[in-house]
Design the sequence.
């Protein structure tokens, strides 16, 4: 187990190094010069050059990279070109919002997907299965922002039960905070629930067709135990992959959802930073996303090892 | 004749497949007395496995439908509700299958799998563990204590099959469905496990439905044999009689295809032709296309009928003989 985790940790470091090089180069390959983007349209070439030097853009690429990575390891992601705040501080301000929404959305997704996926498989071809299939198709096909707009219309505008947008941290009180977070979390959560449900259903069906299920049934193991102990635990392994990726995507921030619900999250920050060619901010945000994705994968691998003894060895 | 422990009457299974409706069992009847071993022999695809499983109401595939009557100790299994059926299976019935790697739950320890079956009958965890250990010792598994904590993938194939048999015997069933229990094993391990299974069966007074395509396995442990072909029983007889004087042309062909002796004088004998497509069976005897003695009579339905005391065959020739 320890060796398994150590191996994964080494892979993680390697991926992060590769990703940092890639992020750094891709950002610089974007068309447009941040120095020009920051100046008024009548700036002289000399002024632009001065700005380039102030931003450190005149240095050779390898030197720029080392400065950035050297800082990143110590938690210093540089200063934003546009806001002249520390990138790390800006992210620290936005990340809790995205994390909060993502966790609630993932909880909602799993709370829907687990019973729906298991029941669809248990009563395959039945009315319940067809109903979940239709609902899932709608969930997959309907864009999250559209669902978000409809929910604002219904719950905020027509019924007036919930605020139409904005964010309140948990420290503002659980009730107030949840009232703000629930609509975006449901919009995001149901979208992912649809995919995870279909995934869980097909892995449940796969496991339920296996010989050990027939043997358990022949020996009179109760059907409920067969579904939840024999089948579900085996079916959970591929399903966790889908759930893990969903969580990764959620943490990267959902631009449209954040715009609609006026949430100060990571998605919007990334979108704005790309538009303004804010190299340090883009790099910092993307590097964080990659790190989170890799960490989630790492967590998933550790979970697989707990769930599946064949991986432990 | 005393009332049999288990009697199957006119069992029909059907399910839809791409080629049309498949009927792996087309009116199969057999009975097993308490403590008796009935062999069910046939080529792959003859429907023996589906039939045996359907006889205890296990549908495979799950979309399959089952027709007929399945009397266990005088009770029709088809008339039981799910809970009563489950209770009956837990107390009286067990199953061992061909592939022990697939038949054990990969994410549960051997100990958990064994004890939970024992506990279906009540009793404490400690009692269940004691019973599991005892049985693993009887199955000649070395270091049974440490095996309880092992997962299936940590055991060898032969060891897994022993565990699977222990799983079947732990609730002391009165009927065991053994679906090719030794096919996946080496010949030496096969002989050992067969002997062990037979020994424990006698000890428990357990009846057994032994499915195999291997006539030498059948010959070693079965009291009676039913030969299956394309969803039907073609011949049924006491084992020795069937092996010595087969009466149905299919049984004869099957026996002739068993390699004997060591002389290498030509290719191994095989039954000419292919087994029929279950979705497109001809009227009458399903074996007629491959039968050396086929005649116009064969296109008429050939019911399984008594041809001698304790012997049945589904062929007009067998009756005439």
Sequence:
């Amino acid at each position: 187990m320890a060796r398994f985790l150590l191996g994964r940790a080494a892979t993680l470091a390697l991926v992060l190094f590769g990703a940092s090089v890639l992020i750094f180069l891709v950002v610089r390959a974007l068309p447009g010069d941040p120095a020009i983007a920051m100046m008024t349209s009548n700036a002289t070439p000399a002024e632009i050059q001065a700005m380039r030097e102030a931003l450190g853009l005149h240095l050779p690429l390898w030197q720029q990279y080392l400065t950035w990575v050297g800082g990143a390891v110590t938690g210093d992601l540089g200063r934003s070109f546009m806001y002249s705040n520390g990138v790390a501080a800006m992210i620290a301000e936005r990340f809790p919002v995205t994390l909060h929404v993502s966790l609630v959305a993932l909880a909602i997704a799993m709370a829907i997907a687990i019973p729906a996926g298991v029941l669809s498989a248990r009563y395959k071809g039945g009315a319940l299965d067809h109903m979940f299939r239709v609902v899932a198709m709608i969930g997959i096909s309907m864009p999250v922002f559209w669902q978000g707009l409809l929910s604002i219309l219904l719950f905020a505008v027509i019924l007036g039960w919930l605020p139409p947008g904005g964010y309140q941290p948990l420290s503002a009180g659980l009730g107030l905070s949840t009232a703000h977070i629930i609509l975006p979390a449901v919009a995001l959560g149901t979208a992912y629930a649809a995919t995870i449900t279909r995934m869980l259903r097909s892995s449940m069906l796969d496991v339920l067709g296996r010989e050990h299920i027939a043997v358990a049934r022949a020996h009179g193991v109760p059907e409920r135990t067969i579904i939840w102990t024999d089948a579900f635990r085996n079916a959970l392994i591929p399903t966790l992959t889908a759930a893990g990726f969903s969580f990764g995507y959620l943490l990267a921030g959902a631009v449209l959802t954040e715009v609609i619900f006026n949430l100060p999250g990571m998605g919007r920050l990334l979108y704005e930073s790309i538009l303004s060619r804010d190299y340090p901010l883009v790099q910092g945000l993307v590097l964080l996303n990659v790190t989170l994705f890799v960490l989630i994968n790492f967590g998933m691998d550790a979970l697989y090892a707990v769930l599946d003894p064949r991986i432990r060895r | 004749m005393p009332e049999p422990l288990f009697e199957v009457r006119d069992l029909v299974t059907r399910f839809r497949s791409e080629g049309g409706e498949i009927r792996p069992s087309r009116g199969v009847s057999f009975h097993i007395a308490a403590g008796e071993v009935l062999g069910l022999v046939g080529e792959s695809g003859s429907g023996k496995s589906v039939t045996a499983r359907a006889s205890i109401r296990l549908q495979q595939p799950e979309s399959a439908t089952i027709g007929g009557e399945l009397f266990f100790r005088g009770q029709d299994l088809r008339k039981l509700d799910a809970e009563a059926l489950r209770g009956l299976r837990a107390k009286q019935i067990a199953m061992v299958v061909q592939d022990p790697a697939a038949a054990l739950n990969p994410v549960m320890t051997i100990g958990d799998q064994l004890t939970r079956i024992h506990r279906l009958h009540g009793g404490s965890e400690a009692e269940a563990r004691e019973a599991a250990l005892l049985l693993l010792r009887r199955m000649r598994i070395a270091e049974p204590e440490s095996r309880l904590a092992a997962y299936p993938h940590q055991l060898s194939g032969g060891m897994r099959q022993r565990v699977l048999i222990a799983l079947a015997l732990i609730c002391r069933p009165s009927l065991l469905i053994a679906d090719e229990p030794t096919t996946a094993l080496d010949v030496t391990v096969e002989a050992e496990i067969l002997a062990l299974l037979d020994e424990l069966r006698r000890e428990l007074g357990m009846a057994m439905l032994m499915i195999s395509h291997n006539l030498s396995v059948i010959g070693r442990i079965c009291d009676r044999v039913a030969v299956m072909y394309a969803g039907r029983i073609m011949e049924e007889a006491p084992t020795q009689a069937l092996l010595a004087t087969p009466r149905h042309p299919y049984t004869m062909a099957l026996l002739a295809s068993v390699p004997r002796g060591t002389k290498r004088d030509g290719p191994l004998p095989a039954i000419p032709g292919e087994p029929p497509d279950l979705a497109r069976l001809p009227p009458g005897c399903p074996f007629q296309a491959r039968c050396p003695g086929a005649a116009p009579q064969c296109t008429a339905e050939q019911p399984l009928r008594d041809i001698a005391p304790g012997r049945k065959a589904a062929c007009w020739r067998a009756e005439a003989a």
